[in-house]
Amino acid sequence: MVFLRAVLIFCLSAAASAASSLQPPAGFMQPPEHLRHETVTCPAAPPPFTGALDFRSKYDGSDNARATLNPQTEAAFRQQTQTISDMERFVSHQITAYARSGNPHYVACAVNALDAWASAGALTGDARNHTGKSVRKWALATFSSTWLQLQFSPQHPLAPYPAQQQNITRWLGKLGDLTVTDWRDLPLKKVNNHSYWAAWALMSTAVATQREDLFAASLAIYRTAMQQIDEHGFLPNELRRRQRALSYHNYAIQPLVMIALFARANGIDLRTENHDALQRLGKRIIDALDNPSAFAQRSGETQDVAFLQYPTNLAWLEAWCQLYTCDAPLLARIDTLRPLQNTRLGGSLSYLLAGKE
């Protein structure tokens, strides 16, 4: 079965390459596991968010490290962005369900919801602060990285929806243009994990919209990130998060690994940038999962490792093991955490990249 799946994915990759100038990794364009057509009741989708992107930060009142959560403003942030986060989960769930079942009813649910948001111009409002810009690119990363799975599915599930597909693709491109504007021309001291997540949103949107300019914008941010990684595998701007330095290094690498994986699918090997900087960063983080002393020493603070309680924060390891050879202990760790999924990275990376449930 493993051999047959590998042959199928190779064939799909070759076919997609011939059809499109930009493509995702092969796992993102595999056929559904099953083909079922039982009627599915589509739940009500969240209404389009058309207001200004003006949200409280969960770190309001913190010092320059921006590492101390403010419970009051975090609650306000969750409440203000609830509709957007609900939509991210809604779309991801529908498209993941289609990948498992092949049931076209899930496709209809996703298409109708995204089409409504596209027609309303959702998330295109004025981003009045850093948090608003962040929410826009996070949502875009979710929508594009899941949507392209329908676009590249060999079952052609979007064939019945040509007008909606065009509308949604146009909207994703608009959000991509806004994301470029939101995160361009920052001084290096402010280029951090947020810029990297913007770059991932641009990469997945570039593939979804066949926009070479967005692809190039993503690569430019990625290459800046690689130049920021020092000889020991640290990101200075993430070390400033003090007790959360390891947590934010882990957060920063997630989009970078996905960008490298998508770039490789398009014939560009980014792993060699700045003398294998991505590998230095990943090794530094992986070593610290069991022993964060190096981060404590460099940041001057005992590390808060609460993020390890949530496997979604380690979903990037599935992509990592596609780029690099993972040793037996790391593979065993990943296996105990599966299925590893992260809505903003495309859903279940265990399924998409490793064929694991």
From TrEMBL:
InterPro entries: Alginate_lyase_dom, Chondroitin_lyas. It is an enzyme of class 4 (lyase). Its EC number is 4.2.2.3. Gene3D superfamilies: Chondroitin AC/alginate lyase (1.50.10.100). Keywords: Lyase, Signal. Residues 54-295 form the Alginate lyase domain. GO terms for molecular function: poly(beta-D-mannuronate) lyase activity. Residues 1-18 form the signal peptide. It comes from the Bacteria. This is Mannuronate-specific alginate lyase. It comes from Kosakonia calanthes.
